[in-house]
Design goal:
The protein is of the alpha/beta class and about 400 residues long. It is built from 15 helices and 14 strands. A seven-stranded mixed beta sheet has the order 3-9-8-7-6-4-5, sandwiched between helices. The chain has a four-stranded antiparallel beta sheet with strand order 10-11-14-13, covered by helices on one side. The protein has a three-stranded mixed beta sheet with strand order 1-2-12. Strand 4, helix 6 and strand 5 form a beta-alpha-beta unit. The longest helix is centred in the last third of the chain and has 20 residues.
Length: about 400
């Protein structure tokens, strides 16, 4: 069949370029020590930054939620799928973020991807078409996550201006030159492949100066950044009604789902117009019930201890690799990218680590720019220093074998 042959040819091309991806099946709960394909591996690839994904209290909360609410919601939120568990979670999330977002209200989504796809198109639609300055422009960081990029593509009638990564001066100049009447600045907080943190105070200043919305995706910051784990806004102690905040609950929170917190007027608009909220079945109430328990852990003493342990693991890891020739990016977060270079070299490094009993993923284009293929090392509070020492020794050996 000609159509199938075309796809087969494209798959072969991906194989030649060392870009073909494969699924691996994990047989154990999410943890640094896992079993995969009948092998025991030490994993540095999970976004479970606080080690909560298999926490006994959350396992029990999921079972309790299923006993109380069942295992499915049955419909979209605006039909009959919005349970008491969803409502309580949204109230809890709004209260958590209220010190930094005036008149905060929250909306719960099934995934972070869906939350991001909701916000930008809906806010672009909210622009005043009757205004003399009716243009609509999105200003997007060049290294934004795929979900933010796709959201800009779904924002019809909007011009998209991409500014160099974290370049406040370039963004300021682009905003000053724009005559659009409706402006959105869109950025990750912690960038998922580089591990650095966006200059949010400067971005918020520009948003207020140019009367723009500042949409921030804190997928890799929520639960980890800030004294109480409330994320990047707490980390910078940043308060502004211009901010529309997205957080993910399947990473540091250890469960699933995502949320948007913003001024209550913005959330009411999203409830009316966000297609990924309106036209999908609501997440199971048991998930929302479990997330509520996770938020209690994150904000409590155990959460503070786990964040401190994670910070120490990051410090210990970076100290161990100071002499490595591969380029370790200057990341202060749990995401520690090690630039190897070519696709083949990154795959070879990942395979060498796999042979040593460690799972560290090789990240290649289009996820990262060509020539910057890397090992994406994700640290967790659940890793021990012995785990990290084992990883560092294996990385040194892999680099030596590559040269």
């Amino acid at each position: 069949m000609k159509l199938r042959d075309t796809i087969a040819g494209k798959l072969e091309a991906l194989e030649r370029q060392n870009l073909r991806r494969r699924v691996r099946t994990v047989e154990t709960p999410c943890s640094p020590h896992i079993r995969i394909e009948n092998r025991e591996l030490l994993a540095f690839c999970s976004n479970d930054y606080l080690g909560l994904a298999n926490h006994p209290a959350l396992v029990e909360a999921m079972a309790e939620g299923a006993r109380r609410y069942g295992v499915g919601s049955g419909a979209a939120h605006l039909v009959s799928g919005h349970s008491r568990a969803h409502a309580l979670l949204e109230e809890q999330l709004a209260a958590l973020l209220s010190p930094w977002i005036p008149q905060a209200r929250a909306l719960f989504f099934c995934t972070g991807y869906m939350a991001n796809l909701a916000v930008t198109p809906a806010l672009i639609e909210a622009g005043d078409a009757a205004s003399k300055k009716s243009g609509r422009t999105i200003f997007a960081d060049a290294l934004n996550h795929a979900s933010l990029i796709d959201a800009t593509r779904l924002a019809r009638d909007a011009e998209v201006t991409e500014y160099p990564h974290a370049d406040v001066a370039a963004l300021g100049a682009a905003l000053a030159q724009s005559d659009a009447g409706h402006k959105l600045i869109v950025t990750d907080t912690v960038f998922s492949m580089d591990g650095d943190i966006a200059p949010l105070p400067e971005l918020a200043r520009l948003a207020e100066q140019h009367d723009a919305w500042l949409i921030v995706d804190d997928a890799h910051g929520f639960g980890v950044l800030g004294e109480n784990g409330c994320g990047a806004l707490e980390h910078f102690n940043l308060r502004s009604e211009h901010i529309v905040y997205t957080g993910t609950l399947g990473k540091a929170a250890g469960v699933a789902g995502a949320f948007v917190v913003a001024h209550e007027t913005v959330i009411e608009w999203l409830l009316q117009r966000a297609r990924t909220y309106l036209f999908t079945t609501a997440s199971p109430p048991a998930v929302a019930h479990t997330v509520s328990r996770s938020l209690e852990l994150i904000a409590g003493e155990e959460g503070r201890q786990r964040r401190a342990r994670l910070a120490e693991n990051i410090r210990h890891f970076r100290m161990q690799l100071q002499t490595l020739r591969w380029s370790l990016l200057p990341s202060p977060t749990a995401i520690q990218p090690l630039i190897v270079g070519s696709n083949g070299a990154a795959l070879a490094a990942a395979q060498a680590l796999d042979h040593a009993g460690l799972w560290v993923p090789a990240i290649r284009p289009p996820t990262v720019p060509t020539g910057t293929a890397r090992l994406r090392i994700a640290l967790s509070a659940a890793h021990t220093q012995d785990d990290i020492d084992r990883l560092c020794a294996a990385l040194v050996t892999a680099e030596q074998e590559a040269n």
